Amino acid sequence: MDVAFFLKLLPGVLGAAGLLTYFTSARKPDSDLEIVNIVRGVRRAFVIAGCAALILLSVWLINKPQPPDYGFLFPDGHPVAAARQLA
Question: Does residue 71 register a pLDDT over 70?
Answer without folding.
Answer: no
